[in-house]
Write a structure and sequence with these properties.
The protein is 0% helix and 57% strand. It contains no helices and eleven strands. Strand 7 (66-71) and strand 8 (76-81) form a beta hairpin.
């Protein structure tokens, strides 16, 4: 599985951005997808995740401002970010855990795919 993220940029506080993340490869093995972010000097944190059937979870810091969605036909997950704040400045990463069945030994191996990251900068 490969993930390609896009949509970051520079925006003023109060503005909006939409991030996209397209999956390719063994996409049938993907179920949940998520967005994480990592600000300078901080640990990577979960922003939002979404299941295959559309159930969502959000970090408290973004509830009511961000919306995660997915288009399964396009193998793409989105993050609509509204009312952006300077503290939202970070590199945003899309994520997709997936499993691969190995026929030669009958085992299931868990993997974690990450996109390359897209920088979001919110100016005050």
């Amino acid at each position: 599985v490969q993930l390609q993220a896009s949509g970051g940029g520079l925006v003023q506080a109060g503005g909006s951005l939409r991030l996209s993340c397209a999956a390719s490869g063994n996409i049938d093995s993907i179920n949940d997808m998520a967005w994480y972010r990592q600000a300078p000097g901080k640990l990577r944190e979960l922003v939002a995740d979404i299941s295959m059937d559309g159930n969502t979870n959000y970090a408290d810091s973004v509830k009511g401002r961000f919306t995660i969605s997915r288009d399964n036909a396009k193998n793409t997950v989105y993050l609509q970010m509204n009312s952006l704040k300077p503290e939202d400045t970070a590199v945003y990463y899309c994520n997709a855990p997936y499993n691969v069945y190995r026929e030669y030994d009958g085992t299931i191996v868990a993997y974690n795919a990450w996109g390359q990251g897209t920088l979001v900068t919110v100016s005050s």
